[in-house]
Amino acid sequence: GAVVSQHPSRVICKSGTSVKIECRSLDFQATTMFWYRQFPKQSLMLMATSNEGSKATYEQGVEKDKFLINHASLTLSTLTVTSAHPEDSSFYICSARVGATEAFFGQGTRLTVV
Amino acid sequence: GQNIDQPTEMTATEGAIVQINCTYQTSGFNGLFWYQQHAGEAPTFLSYNVLDGLEEKGRFSSFLSRSKGYSYLLLKELQMKDSASYLCAVMDSNYQLIWGAGTKLIIKP
Questions:
Q1: Mean per-residue pLDDT, B64-89
Q2: What distance in Å separates the CA atoms of residue A6 and residue A96, rounded to the nearest whole number?
Q3: Disulfide-capable partner of A50 in A63, A71, A75, B80 (CB 3.0 to 4.6 Å)?
Q4: Hey, is the C-beta of B96 within 8 angstroms of any chain A C-beta?
Q5: Mutate to test the interface with A, among B5, B34, B41 (most CBs of A within 10 A)
Q6: Which residues contact A40 (CB under 8 A, 6 or more apart)?
Q7: Which of B37, B51, B57, B104 would best serve as a mutation to test chain A binding (most A beta carbons within 10 A)?
């Protein structure tokens, strides 16, 4: 199957700093990537849909100025958590869709803000 | 509103069979997915059903009834490594994935 690589897998940062998470499609081109957040024992929550060459589409309640998404190429999307706070600590996962249906996930990033 | 329901937790014995149910109410339907997620890891794809019936893939099978808004994932010959959360997700009319909260499956020796 298709491979999606997400980096870093774990990051600890100080409150008020920014963290960038990268999501790469290694063996295919992804015009659309998705960013999810998952709190412990909860379901995946879609944060935004990232489209190559255009602005991301954010879900209701997600602050676009806080969670900056850039999809600069067909193989790379980045999520930057700006001015991170402890409540932003979560598991962030990206995915890329192949065709209309199948989705492949990155490894996920465990963000801890201290 | 859109809703996916699945049991929170299930326990089964190594070597046995377990069925994890999922019921859904969504605006439109473009297929139902099952994913496996081990603790601290990203989900991995298990199955996709868009037509009614049973899809078998090795030890795992997935069933769909669109008229009932119902699916199940059947795991046979359970192994300890099958201990994980199993996520049911439905793709709605906008091709967005609506996720269930997941079923934590505990396998006992």
A1: 97
A2: 11
A3: A71
A4: yes
A5: B41
A6: none
A7: B37
| Segment A67-80, tens digit of pLDDT | 999 988 888 999 99
Q: What's the 3-state SS for chain A? A: CCCEEEECCEEEECCCCCEEEEEEECCCCCCEEEEEEECCCCCCEEEEEEECCCCCEECCCCCCCCEEEEEEECCEEEEEECCCCHHHCEEEEEEEEECCCEEEECCCEEEEEC
Structure tokens at A30: 């992804």
Residue numbers in A near B41 (CB within 8 A): 107-108
- A99 contact residues in B (CB cutoff 8 A): none
